[in-house]
Design goal:
With about 170 residues, the chain is of the alpha/beta class. The chain has one domain: Glutaredoxin. The strands form 2 sheets. Strands 2-6-5-4-7-8 form a 6-stranded mixed beta sheet, covered by helices on one side. A two-stranded antiparallel ribbon has the order 1-3. It is globular.
């Protein structure tokens, strides 16, 4: 019986997981679950119309994929066609939320073309089966389909592939 329950839970988790070539299930962050830095609700249904790179980050791992972020900035993609979303997993750190939220507000002013979002209860970890306590990278095409997924550090070789993948999907 125990094996059946575990199998069903694994199956349910894989059904909800973000899969390459598919639009993931809609996730909404609002209220106690989180929101954009300005307090407004965020929905993954907004991921369409542009190529979006989504960084889902544990604050303790915030620098892990700086090389990718820098490469994307240097690529000077047209902001009307390519954008980014940074979702911070507030439940993955010992740091106080108030400190992180203050930093995010500053970042939002510094990088107005990036959408900054707070996930206070690991909603994306649970609903999309993302890696917890990590730096996850997801890239979506204009229709909202997942075209790239990486949990952890993106290598220099992968960064070049990511840039080419975005260019190919423009």
């Amino acid at each position: 019986m125990k094996k059946i329950v575990i199998s069903l839970l694994c199956l349910l988790g894989s059904v909800m997981a973000v899969e390459l070539g598919k639009v993931p299930p809609v996730v909404v962050l609002s209220g106690d679950d989180g929101a954009k830095v300005d307090g407004k609700r965020w929905s993954s249904s907004m991921i369409k119309g542009k190529i979006y790179t989504l960084f889902y980050v544990d604050p303790d791992k915030k620098d892990l994929n700086d090389a990718l972020a820098n490469a994307l900035n240097k690529s000077n993609f047209n902001r009307s066609k390519v954008s980014s979303i940074a979702i911070v997993n507030l439940a993955a750190t010992w740091m106080p939320n108030a400190l992180i939220e203050s930093t995010l507000k500053k970042k939002q002013k510094q990088f107005p073309h990036t959408i900054y979002v707070k996930d206070k209860k690991k909603v994306l970890v649970k609903k999309w089966n993302l890696a917890d306590d990590n730096s996850d990278i997801l890239i979506f095409d204009k229709k909202g389909k997942l075209i790239y997924k990486k949990f952890g550090k993106v290598s220099d070789t992968e960064i070049k592939k990511v840039i080419k993948l975005i260019e190919k999907n423009l």
